[in-house]
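Fig. S4 source data, part A: sequence.
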Amino acid sequence: MDTSEQYIKMCEKAEEIQASRKFECGDCMVTGDNLIMIRRLSDEGDYFLASLLPRGHNFLLISNKNVIWLPRQDQLQEMVIDADYAMSYLTRIMDWAGITLAKYLLQFTSMEQLWLAFVMKEKYGKVWDGEKWTSC
């Protein structure tokens, strides 16, 4: 799981992704300088038991408004891949990744960063300029 400053910044600036988040157990997020992982959701959905990483101290997070969700690669893939059209998406991803890797080889340093860039391009028509997502 990518927890680099670059990926955190990319996720924070991906407002569309942050707005669509639905927390689930195992999700990672950042609040302030702390990286946390959800251990258990409440029945009401307004708070959850989380663990401070890497120390593993459990705490109860009452508000989830000031956290940055760090989607995992599988969550990013679910945002764009429909099982009925998996092969079509695979071709599009390969075409896009080939062009993107050639152009941005040094810009994206993890599969999460690459997938986030693909989701933002496919769903929202935006590209990462190194600081923010801009319309292309």
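Fig. S4 source data, part B ends here. The chain has two domains: 22-70, 71-136.
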